[in-house]
Amino acid sequence: MAKKSVASLQTGAKRLAKAIKMVKSPKTGAYTFVESIMDPDNVNDWLKKK
After folding, report:
1. Please, are residues 32 and 25 in contact by the beta-carbon 8 Å criterion?
2. pTM passes above 0.85
3. Which of 24, 36, 37, 47 counts the highest number of beta carbons within 10 A?
């Protein structure tokens, strides 16, 4: 299960996006959030990856 939350960040000439994905732990079953700042073109690929 992935929660898609994307915020756009603009720093000078580069445009970045912060993506947050909700990941279920196989050991405990609890959900954790994984954050990453990347190019907006790579967000969908990152969210699809496990």
Report:
1. yes
2. no
3. 47
